[in-house]
Amino acid sequence: MSENTREITLDEAKKLYNSSEEAKVFLLSKFTKNELEGKNIPSQEEFNKFFEENIFPLIDYSKTRFLTSNGYLSQTPTSRIELRDSNDEWLFDYDYDTKNQHFYYSYYNVSPIFQKTFSLQAVDRHRLMKSLFEKHFNLHVCQPAAAKGDVVVG
Question: Which end of the chain is more exposed for a tag (fewer CB within 10 A), N or C?
Fold first, then answer.
């Protein structure tokens, strides 16, 4: 992003949404209609707070694993990190290397927790998670994706 531009916030977009047809077309390229019309989409602050209070506490940092770029266990620290819970169940896999940057979360162990609270479409969930992971993991390039083990599902 150039220094003269910035992303529009959802609150700003909601205010502009009904101002003109051109504004609607542009804003619908950045946000969903449900978001812009305020239908059951939490604010970024609400989503972050929920995640910080309900998901992050599940992480057992003593079970952190370093992985090779191919996903195999590494004996030395790498840029690819896997986070697990106290039952040794996989929660997150992320790589902060700019060539391989990604953030995957468990479809089975993470998704159900926030889906019970927020009924979000994938595009809404990923937008909210992207902002959250930019803040906590300094990942600015990648899009979060749910994964079932080794298979990314969106």
Answer: N
**Of 22, 29, 40, 44, the residue nearest 129 (C-alpha):** 44
State the residue range of the domain holding 68: 42-152
Written as six digits, the tokens of 122 are: 């994938």
Same domain (yes/no): 75, 16: no
Q: Answer yes or no: are the C-beta atoms of 129 and 110 closer than 8 Å.
A: no
Instruction: Select from 82, 87, 90 the least CA-distant residue to 65.
Output: 82
CA–CA dist 85, 87 (Å, integer)? 5
User: Do 51 and 79 have their domain in common?
Assistant: yes
Number of domains in the chain: 2
Q: What is the pLDDT of residues 110-153, one digit of tens each?
A: 888 888 888 777 778 888 888 888 888 888 877 788 887 655 66
Distance, in Å, from the CA atom of 63 to the CA atom of 120, rounded to the nearest integer, reads 30
Q: Sign of torsion, CA 47 48 49 52?
A: positive
Return the closest-CA partner of residue 104 out of 55, 134, 145: 145
Residue 88 structure tokens: 């040794």
Tally of CB atoms within 10 A around 26:
15
Q: Which pTM was predicted?
A: 0.69
